[in-house]
Amino acid sequence: MRKPYIAGNWKMNMTPSAGAAFASDLARAAKEAGCDVKMMIAPPFVTIPAVLEAVKGTGIIVAAQNMNDHKSGAYTGEVSPEMLKDLGVNTVILGHSERRSYYGESDEFINRKVLLAIEEGMDVVLCVGETLEERESGRLEAVLSSQLEGDLKDVKASDMARITIAYEPVWAIGTGKTATPEDADSAHAFIRGRIAEMYSSDIAQNLIIQYGGSVNASNVKALMAKENIDGALVGGASLSVEKFLPIITFNK
Fold this sequence. Notes:
By secondary structure, the protein is α/β, with parallel strands linked by helices. Helices cover about 40% and strands about 15% of the residues. Strands 3-2-1-8-7-6-5-4 form an eight-stranded parallel sheet.
């Protein structure tokens, strides 16, 4: 049985003081509501220490939104996995569509990060997904296959337990548009099938696949009711306790 995994990606929002206050309120609200999902929040780098302190002892995972593909060196403005681990961060989001589109991150580059994260004993939320043009031109499966094969190249079967896949149709991120539950489940099923082909059916069946793309209180139950949707990677709605709480308590 795959436990639901709900994650909030704060992107470039929340100062350290605001993030700490928000995280405290969220942790309190989640406890009072009896939230029993696996929950993660990913603040900006500078906000991570304050948030870690705010959620200490709550079981909420604090993740990084990105990391560099080197352990150290002359990479101005970058953050290494060692730095994250020293703070107490053991999970990182990699391959987000905004990193791919805004900063030109290739599958080869993302793969180097994935391999380094695993080498450093970190868990990875790996984002994959198609643009609207790719979907409308019938290339959904080709795009997903290419991303999965490229991003997971040389990742051993024994390390797949550290990988969570987040399917995020690029056209549904921050737009208010959402893939129908049926469309989303179909894409998730395809991803699970490709992982079975690349690794094994057991690994595929145990793989957590989140949906990301304008998830909110009104659509989360329909999405999570689908066989292959195991969680959500939430953007804007994760910046408000009132909006995020119904998502993390969808099964109540």
